[in-house]
Amino acid sequence: MKNYFKSDGKDALRATLSQPTLIGFDFDGTLAPIVNTPDVAVTPTPIARRLTALARLCPVAIISGRSIKDVRGRLGFMPKFVVGNHGAEGLPGHYDSIEDKCMDALRERIFSHAAEMAVLGICIEDKGLSFSLHYRGSRTELPALRFIEALLAPFRNDLAIFGGKYVVNVATAGAPDKFAALQALLEESGMAGAVFIGDDVTDETVFAGAPSTWLTIRVGGKVPDSRAMYFVDSQSQVVNLIQDMLDLLTAYGHRG
Which of 45, 71, 165, 209 is at 20 to 30 A from 202, Cα to Cα? Predict the structure, then answer.
């Protein structure tokens, strides 16, 4: 990984954007700052304003762990594509089914322990096709994480369970991930290459799978085992990154 702003990052962006390009973003921690309570997350105005302009120049996709209904109202602009539930919701040609018996059994188990989870500071986010169990707000993070692990133990062979920043996510096994989502959107839009910006474990499927015609950037500093090509130090730098995209696309005369 190289620091986008302290290396050849803008040159790499220029080369990628010289071809018809789809630009994809994660939401939490990428467009919006991480907050203790997921319900208050929103795209800051300076970013939303630039994204509005960006969406006029090229196809923009939001690929989030949130549900489509949830994330759409937090964006502050209208992207061409919004995909939710880590890639499982909203893909062209994919059927979004929430009738998964194993997920329903997990839902029943989670809410039967809701009171205990509240005491531990665990926030339950039910997104239909997936769950996120947040423990960022817990004063006892290790006991909270151990409780979540015990709660999910009976489902480890039947559901996809993966971590994140103070969160444990659960999705239907075999559902499309963010890399599969970006591939599908690239085909749908007819673009030749892609830029993807994300910050968390669920974005690593894109970072790991991206071909040389894509550009991937991780938000939040250098992480030794990340497969992203570049990184920026903090979410506050994303506004400058988007401004670079605007400047380059305007110079190329692109239109979405």
Answer: 45
Least Cα distance to 62 among 23, 13, 32 occurs for 23
Distance CA 191, CA 3 (A): 26
Which residue type is seen at 101?
Answer: K
Say if residue 39's pLDDT is above 70: yes
For residue 135, give the CATH number of its domain.
3.30.70.1020
Together in a domain, 161 and 222? no
The pTM of this model reads 0.86
Give the burial string for 235-253 (b: 16+ CB within 10 Å, else e): bebbbebbebbeebbeeee
pLDDT of the residue at 94: 62
pLDDT one-digit tens code per residue, 87-134: 989 887 665 554 467 888 999 999 999 999 999 999 998 988 889 999
pLDDT of the residue at 35:
86
Element (H, E) at 9: helix 9-17
For residue 191, what are the CA distances in angstroms to 6, 60, 93, 188, 214? 28, 11, 18, 8, 11
